[in-house]
Specification:
The chain is an all-alpha fold. It has nine helices and no strands. The protein folds into two domains: about 110 residues, Rna Polymerase Sigma Factor, Chain: A, CATH 1.10.1740; about 70 residues, Arc Repressor Mutant, subunit A. α3 packs across α4. The chain starts with a helix and ends with a helix. Belongs to the sigma-70 factor family. ECF subfamily. It comes from Bradyrhizobium huanghuaihaiense. This is RNA polymerase sigma-70 factor (ECF subfamily). Keywords: DNA-binding, Sigma factor, Transcription, Transcription regulation.
């Protein structure tokens, strides 16, 4: 029987080679693992499944956008867990979670990181967003950067909820292509 690590790594390698079906399966499998991870971590600080689901989406998006950075010679799960951990740290910072709210063995993860990197990344993302059409930009900013619900984003952007979802999906795809194009030049 194949271990989960070997199966996930095989899916990632196929994904990196352009296999869309393998990529979908990989993201679905990782979503299940990430969901359990985030629910466990957030339950310790009194947060709910909705916030865990938001983190799953952020982590899966990061994995999708950064899959080209995965080193095929290394195991996959530590790479995925690093992304998941950083998304959790970002969540705790955004939500102003007190270090007292975080279990003591994890408090260093919240306090030991360089805040300048987050500010620089946010600036870069906002600069990249300027290349998108207004509705796409509005939907991504509202949901992914400002933390609004899809319904709240729909009101802000003056489009339907399904329009918000479509614009986020297409906008993130366009951003990924733009990032890939810029890293190749």
């Amino acid at each position: 029987m194949t271990s989960p690590e070997k199966e996930l790594k095989a899916l990632m390698l196929a994904s990196q080679d352009g296999d869309a079906a393998a990529h979908r399966v990989l993201l679905e499998r990782l979503s299940r693992h990430l969901r359990a991870y985030y629910k466990g971590k957030l339950a310790k600080i009194g947060r709910g499944p909705t916030e865990a689901e938001d983190l799953v989406q952020e982590a899966v998006l990061a994995i999708h956008l950064q899959r080209h950075t995965y080193d095929q010679e290394e195991p996959l799960t530590p790479w995925v867990h690093a992304i998941a951990r950083y998304k959790l740290i970002d969540f705790l910072r955004r939500n102003r979670a007190s270090v007292a709210d975080v279990p003591i063995d994890e408090a260093h993860e919240v306090t030991a990181n360089d805040d300048h990197l987050g500010a620089e990344s946010s600036f870069d993302v906002r600069r990249l967003l300027m290349h998108l059409p207004e509705k796409m930009r509005c939907a991504i900013e509202a949901v992914k950067l400002d933390g609004l619900s899809v319904a709240e984003a729909a009101r802000r952007c003056r489009i339907s909820e399904s329009g918000v979802k479509v614009n986020i999906h297409r906008g993130l795809k366009a951003l990924a292509a733009l990032i890939a194009q810029r890293t190749q030049t």
